Amino acid sequence: CETCSEEEAKYRCPRCMKYSCSLLCVKKHKLALSCNGVRDKTAFVSINEFTDLNLLSDYRFLEDVGRTADAAARHPTVHSPATKKLLYCLRNKARRCNIDLRTLPVGFTKRRENSTTFNFMEKKFYWHLKLIFPHCHAEYTLKGVPDDKTLADILKPYIDPVESDPVVCQRLKIYTGSPRSDVQILMKIENRKQNSIRYNELDASRSLLDNLKGKVIIEYPTLFVVLKTLKNDMVILGQDASEPAENSDSEGSSLSSMEEGEIRDS
Predict the structure, then answer these.
(1) Helix (H, G, I), strand (E, B) or coil at 115
(2) Is residue 249 a contact partner of residue 215, using CB atoms and an 8 Å limit?
(3) Do 145 and 209 form a contact (C-beta atoms < 8 A)?
(4) Which residues belong to any copy of the HIT-type domain (predicted)?
C-alpha cells in the first residue's frame, strides 16, 4: 500500500494508479493528492501499449461526446434571448475595459461554472475566479470577486500566515512558509499553439481589473500561484530566449484545442 506502507495492496486507483489496501487508505490518498479516482479517458497511450480495450474506451468516449454536444445544442437556454443578452452585455462591458472576454456554448464545463456578473450601479465586474496552487495540488474557486480588489488581498485568505484559514494554511504550508517575494501569480495566455504554452506574470499589488486588461479570458480567469524557488514547467512570456518578449494573444488557434478539452471534461 502506497499510503500506509503496512498492508498488502488490494486496489489500484484508475486515475493515478496508486496502490491501496483499504477504503480508508483510498480516501486518504484521494485527499492528499486531490484525486477524484475517475479514470482519465484522454490520457496518452503509446501505440505499443494500445489494446482492444483502449480502442473500445475511445469509441465509447466519442459516443459520450456526441451525446453531450447534441444535448447542449438542444438545451432551451441556448436560444434564450435573455441569455444571449446577458452574455453580449458581459462581453461588451469587458471590451470597454480592454478585456477580450470570450464565452463558450451551453454544455461546456466552464460555461456551466461561470458566475461572473456586472453590477451596473457600481459599474464593476464581480468575477468568477479559480486559484490553482500546483506545488500543493490544490484548487479553489471564488465567486463574486470585485474587479477593484488587489491580487494580494485575494490571496490573503489562502497563503497569509495570519489571516488564512487554519485548514487551508496547513494544506498550503509550502506557500505560507515562503516569503511573499517568492510568490508568483501567473495566467495562461490563450490562443497559442498547444506546443507553445506561455504564461503572463501578474502584479500582486495591482487590482484584478488592471491585471486582466489587454488579455484574452475564456469565460473566467484562472490564476496559477507558484513559487520561484521551486521548479515548474510554466514558461513566462519573454523569459524564453527563443522568442521575443511580446504579447502573442493573436498567435495560433489553441482555442479549438481548449474547447476540445472542455468537451471531454463535460
Answers:
(1) coil
(2) yes
(3) no
(4) 1-35
**CATH code of the domain in which 109 resides:** 3.10.20.90
Convert the pLDDT of each residue in 140-184 to its tens digit: 999 999 999 999 999 988 888 787 778 888 888 888 888 888 888
C-alpha distance from residue 9 to each of 12, 111, 117, 229 (Å): 8, 40, 49, 36
Identify whether the C-beta of residue 35 lies closer than 8 Å to the C-beta of residue 29: yes
Give strand ranges (E) for 192-266: 199-202, 216-218, 222-227
DSSP state at residue 235: P
Tally of structural domains, the chain: 2
- 92 and 203 in a single domain? The answer is yes
Rounded to two decimals, the pTM is 0.61
The amino acid occupying position 265 is D
Is-contact 145 237, C-beta < 8 A? no
Q: For the segment 87-101, what is each residue's pLDDT rounded down to a tens digit?
A: 888 899 999 999 999
